[in-house]
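Q: Entry one of two.
A:
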Amino acid sequence: MDLHLKRLAEVSIAVTEAEEAIADGAFQLASERLDTAREGLAELRAGWLGMGPAERRVVGSAAGPVRARLDTAAAGVPRLQVVSEMSAPVVDPEQEADPEAA
């Protein structure tokens, strides 16, 4: 059980770091820490079947609030928008005119 609780503590620390990064406006760092937290929760879910009933009860009840904090923090990170370097071509009539015809 100690291994699972240590992993959950690491996830909680990552969420706390994400919350602090959001407060500082460091959204890229917050996103990275949230990804780390999600990976940690995924590892805990993968080991769920290997846990005994007592472990599941303890880890499950402790993981709920951490997951809720993760979801709340994730809602505070603005979605990234892709900026295209290739914009639509702008037609300049002077460029299109034949200088010989003028």
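Q: Entry two of two.
A:
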Amino acid sequence: MAMYIAVKREGKWEVLFSHVNGDDLIKRCDTKKQAEALIKVLETGHNVKENEMKYYLGSLNITLGEYEVDTAIRFSANGNPRLKIHDIAEDFYGNCYCEDDGTYYFNGGEVAVEVGCFEEVSKEVFDSIPNQIAPVLWGKREDE
């Protein structure tokens, strides 16, 4: 599961976004209290005005057996969109297990989902796009 963590390294506190792909450094803080306060803001969206929803288009990279499907998704978040898209990937196909290779696995490994990219869009653009956008089917991987 993706989450924010605070780690002390070389006398400084680092706030990291920890997910199955690894850890991304968000910011270095002088004290643990500053790091914990930053994590609270990031997780709860307190820096976002109440009821100020933001809208995003994103992608999930899905492997179904020998096929790869890049699926475009739309989602909204009243807080951190990176956490939201990881939650979507984690819940994509039921119960998952995660490996260190940055992938959420389902159905005994038959289905694999990776988080792609995402971008903020206006509410008008978000509303003009249907809930389900047609996926692009790429077929068998070249490396197999």
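A: Comment on entry two: The first strand starts at residue 3 and ends at 9. Helices lie at 32-44, 81-90, 123-128.
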